[in-house]
# Entry
Amino acid sequence: MQNLNKLLVDVFNPKKGENIILLNDFPSKEKHIDLEYIQRREMAIEWHKAFEELAKTLQCTVEPIIFYEPTNGDGAPLPVQGLQKNKKIELDKKIRSLSKKDIVLAINRFSATGPLETVLKKQQFRCASMPGVSANMSALYADYSLVAKKVKVLQKKLTEADAAIVTFSTGHEMFFDLRERKALADDGQCTKPGQAINFPSGEAFIAVYDLAGSKTQGFIPVYYENHFLVYEVKENKIIDVITDSPQSREMQKYFQEDPARANIAELGLGCNDKAVFINNVLQDEKIEGMHWAYGYNDYMGGTVGVKDFKDPLHAVHVDVIYTKGAKVKVKRMKLFYPPGKEEIIMENSRYSFNVQKEFEKN
# Structure
């Protein structure tokens, strides 16, 4: 418990008069409950107890955990209602009432990052979204002062770049249009009003240019349910799945069903040295390597939001990850800066020598 207390203070630094709220998605029907839901609920209870212990000395308050029905989709809108101390509450009203004094931790199966960050800027609470988290994630216990230094280097590079070209180990190539966008840092620091992190943390990420005339195009190889697929991209949209398999046709139909899903939303770079591959996006995207995402991105500086989907329940933000242990790797990633400067920042899903040296200097 002592290590957990230190972690919570280092990351959140709760102050006198602040209020802490934990969210946890847990099915009401027994047939939908599995071991992961149970373990994550137990984790939420353990962290809640740790915050209550800290509150005695820090003079902050801790609300009872708010439980709600799983959304069954990462980034999907949160339910209207929830349960707090076994009593129904208006969850949407609760979220809209959050202010600078509130700290929110979403210890969930499905990501609440988008719904929370959509209102964060206006209301200025701070939050940590932890979709799919487990108590034994190694990335939770990284040296976050070191993580923050690395993230700062990567954030600067993505912000200054106009474009990125990624060549994959399969030979496919993808051009990402990054102009007019500012990269964000997920560095494990959530100590000020208006801050939001995914936790465990350790990435710099940027919304890809998604307006008319976007130059984002190419071919992206992915593994979906252990099947190799290739997405064809033009003007920042997935327009086709060019491989031929039942899974390819399934994903082609998926993107055609709601074109907002096909938006190339994000380009990200992970740098948490404690993160290891566990087939869980929350930790895996923080491993040294690259990832991208499709779906909505308005909360990170893009233009596509829940309103752009045919049905709000279709709203998604899905990350696809490439690490040195993945089946498909990043053979080379090159950033292009104005006026005419370029830099190789990654080879074989490892940061290049020049980037490693910058990590050491900062």
Remarks:
- The mean pLDDT is 94.
- The chain has two domains: 2-135, 141-361.
- The CA atoms of residues 124 and 194 lie 4 Å apart.
- The longest helix spans residues 35-58.
